[in-house]
Amino acid sequence: MRNRRRSCVRDRRRTQILTRDGFDLSRHPISLLSNGTLGWLQILNFTLTGIALIAFAVGVRRAIEGERSGKWGPRLLFVFGSGFVVGGLFRADPEHGFPIGTPDGPPAEVSWHGIVHGIGPAVAFTAFYIVCFVFAKRFWAEGSRVFAVVSGVVGAGLLVLLANPSTDGIGVRMAIGVAVAFAWTSALGVRLLRSTPVTAA
Asked: Where would you find the membrane-spanning parts of this chain (predicted)?
């Protein structure tokens, strides 16, 4: 019975975007899912994602400490992960009709936790844009030109995509941005893992 309940919770978390009444990805950023009765799922999602990214930053530091990008690369990845933790712990204000019953349009007054929530992801993705260029420089110097170019394109592309001040399609743009950022981060981990020599214990 417990396993069935846990499975149900996981399924709800994966399908919140499609199943939460009143949520429209073309109008609403994903962070609005932190509101309402199932808001704890998105809060947990953001927080655990941030913790995983922070752990990844620690691993990257250990793998390339003393090498090119060994100082700022891990630091920027740490900031990237910390932004997700902040985004999870400090909830976004309801707006644009979500959750149902919320007036359409932006909130009349932004709360203190809404302000902090907005700062967290902004700082996180600023760090991400920069870390892409930091590793692009590293891999270019190593002769890994393809990964260097991909890193630069990802950083510049997401900067253009997410720095757009327009709120039109903000949810879709953010979803694409997060997916691309995580794909690049995963590729970085694999790339560093393959290039790091294994030492005997």
From this structure: 39-60, 72-90, 110-134, 146-164, 170-193
- What the block records as the tokens of 198 is 């294994």
What DSSP letter does each residue of 86-113 carry, written as one string? Answer: HHHHSPPPPBTTBSTTSPSSS-SS--HH
- Alpha carbons 25 and 181: distance in angstroms, whole number: 18
Euclidean distance between CA atoms 118 and 106, whole angstroms: 13
Number of H helices, E strands in the chain: 6, 0
* Nearest Cα to Cα of residue 187 among 120, 122, 137, 139: 139
Query: What integer pLDDT is reported at residue 152 of this predicted model?
Result: 96
138's tokens: 């590293």
Q: Where are the domains of the chain?
A: 24-195
Give the integer Cα–Cα distance in Å for 161 and 44. Answer: 26
Collect the ranges in the chain with pLDDT lower than 50: 1-14, 200-201
**Cα–Cα distance list, 165 to 4, 76, 91 (Å):** 43, 23, 21
Paired residues of 127 in beta bridges: none
C-alpha distances (whole Å) from 68 to each of 74, 118, 124, 137 are 11, 32, 22, 9
Q: What is the 3-state secondary structure (H, E, C) of 160-199?
A: HHHCCCCCCCHHHHHHHHHHHHHHHHHHHHHHHHHHCCCC
